[in-house]
């Protein structure tokens, strides 16, 4: 195999974007093998844009056609595990869109099946893991630049969506069609980055508002307290109704603090001595000097790193990395099995709000599925839109 023939399942916004990148030759070692969609209008569009690419309205037929070596699942979230398993069963490599699924029970089934096919490539589309800024941030934390983490705070509210966004498709913002709101649609990348960089919390307590500022059944406002189990805590805030939007990620350690602004700039403040040493050795006279116009350089140094992000570059990097793993075994930036962590954290946030109490991770998968099923049945009886 000299180039990976990718089958794109679902040619909506994401699938259409990937098809464009590949057809324009922007993805090394990859071509479009086939496209699949159940919408007849998409078939007409693809006939015009990609006349030489086979088109299917049944994804099983596509993966059995001999036209594809791998697939990417650009479909509603519930279908990701099912489609990945069907592809892997037929010895077709699978790249799963985020989130890996709606609930951990189905994602675990996918991971276990993928583990039985180690010769196949199984990846997840966590394109933010290819973002140089977040790669640098992970390196800083892993290298102990600010010591042990004491607190994390991430407010990410740059997801403004008007009512028309939710009204454009019947499956959007429903429990039965999408499995949730901002936690499963807009913020999965940040939820993944939070645990990838700072580790998984041990407990979660959340306040979640459902249909708070939009006429929807699912969440559009989330505030969560994270307990890492070693004294460290965190706060994660996200929503889809803040038209002004904020993206600010702070990590406080015992040797300094890192602040990420707008996913563009990292400010690193490194303490000259660990905070605990300062507390043990400084006199109140020394403390007063700091807070009354003292020289900040006496207690910390500051470094600012700025990054430029080219739109689409991260998505292309994931596709290229996926192809490279198939062709020559290059390590995956985001192995498919990693997808369960973000789903587990999102599930915990939901479950805490549904039960009105703190929940421990890993959560009770059966309880979560039962509670989600109740939401789906209630939605069928009393649809909001």
From TrEMBL:
Residues 5-118 form the Gfo/Idh/MocA-like oxidoreductase N-terminal domain. Residues 134-258 form the GFO/IDH/MocA-like oxidoreductase domain. InterPro entries: Gfo/Idh/MocA-like_OxRdtase_N, Gfo/Idh/MocA_Oxidoreductase, GFO_IDH_MocA-like_dom, NAD(P)-bd_dom_sf. Coiled coil: none annotated. GO terms for molecular function: nucleotide binding. SUPFAM superfamilies: Glyceraldehyde-3-phosphate dehydrogenase-like, C-terminal domain, NAD(P)-binding Rossmann-fold domains. Gene3D superfamilies: Dihydrodipicolinate Reductase, domain 2, NAD(P)-binding Rossmann-like Domain. It holds the Pfam family GFO_IDH_MocA_C3. This is Gfo/Idh/MocA family oxidoreductase.
């Amino acid at each position: 195999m000299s180039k990976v023939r990718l089958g794109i399942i679902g040619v909506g916004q994401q699938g259409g974007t990937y098809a464009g990148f590949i057809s324009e030759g922007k993805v090394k070692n990859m071509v479009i093998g086939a496209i699949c969609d159940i919408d007849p209008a998409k078939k007409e569009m693809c006939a015009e844009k990609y006349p030489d690419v086979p088109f299917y309205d049944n994804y099983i037929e596509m993966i059995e056609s001999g036209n594809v070596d791998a697939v990417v699942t650009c479909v509603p979230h519930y279908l990701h595990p099912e489609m990945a398993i069907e592809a892997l069963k037929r010895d077709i490599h699978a790249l799963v869109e985020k989130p890996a699924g709606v609930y951990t029970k189905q994602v675990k089934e996918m991971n276990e099946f993928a583990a039985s096919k180690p010769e196949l490539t199984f990846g997840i589309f966590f394109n933010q893991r290819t973002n140089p800024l977040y790669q640098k941030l992970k390196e800083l934390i892993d290298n102990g630049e600010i010591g042990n983490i004491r607190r994390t705070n991430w407010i990410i509210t740059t997801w403004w969506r008007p009512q028309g966004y939710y009204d454009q498709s019947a499956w959007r913002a429903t429990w039965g069609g999408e499995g949730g709101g901002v936690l499963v649609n807009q913020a999965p990348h940040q939820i993944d980055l939070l645990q990838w960089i700072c580790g998984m919390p041990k407990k979660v307590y959340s306040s979640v508002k459902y249909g708070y500022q939009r006429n929807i059944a699912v969440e559009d406002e989330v505030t969560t307290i994270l307990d890492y189990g070693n004294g460290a805590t965190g706060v994660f805030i996200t929503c889809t109704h803040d038209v002004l939007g904020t993206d600010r990620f702070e990590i406080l350690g015992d040797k300094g603090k890192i602040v990420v602004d707008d996913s563009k700039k990292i400010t690193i403040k490194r303490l000259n001595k660990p905070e605990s040493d300062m507390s043990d050795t400084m006199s109140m006279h020394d403390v007063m000097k700091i807070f009354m116009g003292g020289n900040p350089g006496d207690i910390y140094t500051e470094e600012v790193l700025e990054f430029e992000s080219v739109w689409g570059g991260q998505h292309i990097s994931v596709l290229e990395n996926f192809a490279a793993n198939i062709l020559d075994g290059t390590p995956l930036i985001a192995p498919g099995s990693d997808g369960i962590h973000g789903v587990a954290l999102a599930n915990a946030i939901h479950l805490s709000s549904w039960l009105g109490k703190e929940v421990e991770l890993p959560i009770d998968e059966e309880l979560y599925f039962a509670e989600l099923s109740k939401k789906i049945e209630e939605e069928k009886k009393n649809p909001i839109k």
